[in-house]
Amino acid sequence: xxALAILGSTGSVGQxxxxxxxxxxxxxxxxxxxxxxxxxxxxxxxxxxxxxxxxLADQADARALRKRVGDAVEIRFxxxxxxxxxxxxxxxxxxxxxxxxxxxxxxxxxxxxxxxALANKEVMVMAGALVxxxxxxxxxxxxxxxxxxxxxxxxxxxxxxxxxSRLILTCSGGPFRExxxxxxxxxxxxxxxxxxxxxxxxxxTVDSATLMNKGLEVxxxxxxxxxxxxRIDVVVHPQSIVHSLVEYRDSSVLAQLGLPDMRVPIAxxxxxxxxxxxxxxxxxxxxxxxxxxxxxxxxxxxxLALAAxxxxxGEEAAAVLNAANEVAVAAFLERLIPFGAIADTNAxxxxxxxxxxxxAVVNELADVLAADVWARDCARKQLALGVDPRSDIMPxxxxxxx
Length: 402
Ligand code: MG
Fold this sequence. Notes:
Layout (H helix, E strand, L loop, with lengths): L1 E6 L4 H12 L4 E7 L4 H11 L3 E4 L2 H11 L4 E4 H10 L4 E4 L7 H9 L3 E4 L3 H16 L4 E3 L2 H10 L7 E8 L9 H5 L3 H4 L9 H9 L1 H13 L7 E5 L5 E7 L4 E5 L5 H9 L13 H4 L14 H10 L4 H17 L6 H18 L7 H18 L14 E2 L4
Parallel strand pairs: 1-2, 1-5, 2-3, 3-4, 5-6, 6-7, 8-9
Antiparallel strand pairs: 4-12, 8-10, 10-11
Bound molecules: magnesium ion.
The site of magnesium ion has 4 residues, from helix 7.
C-alpha cells in the first residue's frame, strides 16, 4: 500500500487523483489532505478516505468541517496546516495546489524526503533551480503530473540524459487559436473558460487561452528535466493526442499519445514505477485519422515569448512573471480587466524587473517570496487595483484553538 498525502484535494487534479485512489483501494491509502475553502467536498473525502490529518484555508472552514465530520480526524488550517499535511507520513505527496501558495509546502514535503507528484507547475516556475537542488539533496523523485511533462518523463525512461537533443512540448492552442488579436483582447471570461480539449481549473484554463500556460510549462520542463530553454520547442497540436515528444541525438523522436484525460498522467505518477489499469476511453488512431501540428503565433500570443525572456533573465525572473500573471488572471476572472490586459501586465512587470534585477540568483525560499511579493505589488499598480487583502500572511493554527 502506498501512503499518499494530497495538497489541494478538492481541486480538479486533487479530485481526479482521489478517483484513481478510489478505483485502486488495494494499492493506495490516504493519510492527509489539504484543501482551501471547499468544506463540503473535503467532508465527503474525509468520510470516504479516512485520512488522519486534514487542513483548510482558515479557522472558520476548520470549524465548519469539524461540525460535519465529528472527531474522526485532526483538523488544522492556514499555512501551518498546509506544512503539516506536506510533512505528514506518506511515501508520495501529490502537490496539486494552484499557484504560488504551493511552493512552501512542496519544499517542506521534499525536505521531509517525500517523493512528489507535481501538478502545481508554479512550484517549478518560481523556484525550479532551488527545488531541483533540494530534491537531489534529499533523494526525492519529482514525478510530473502535467500531461506534457508526464509524456516527456515517459519518453525519457530508460535513456541517458546526454543523448537527449530536444524536448518538444505540444500545445492545444486554446480556445482563441484562430481568433484575431483584436478579438482576443476583448474575450470574455466565459469564452476564456471554454477550453476545447482539457477539463481543468479556472486559472490554468485562462493560462491556456493566453498560452501563458505553455510558457510556464517551458520553464517547468527546463528545471524538471535539466534541459536548457534553447532546446525546448513548442508546437501547436489542436487534437491534443500527442502529449509531448523527446528527440534524441540519433534523430529518433519518442512521443506519448492518448486521449486527453488528466487521470492518465495522475495514475502514471501515483503508480510509478509500475502502471495500473485505468478505466478511461482508449485511443483509436483510425477514428482520429489526422494529427495536425503548427508553429505557435507569437504575435497573437505574446505570453509564450515572455517565458523564454524570463528564463534568460535570471532565476528570479520566472517567479516575477508567474506572480504578475496570477494577479492579472485573478483580476480578469473577477471581470476587473480585459483579457488583453493579462499579457500586457505580464510584459510590463517582467520588463520592470529585468531593468532592476536582471540575472538575480535565488539562494533560498525567501528570495523567491520577495520577488513574488514585489511582482504582485507591481502588477496591482500596473492594473490600478487596490491592495490585495489576500496578500496578508495566512492565519495558522489548529481548529481547536480559540
Ligand atoms: Mg499541461
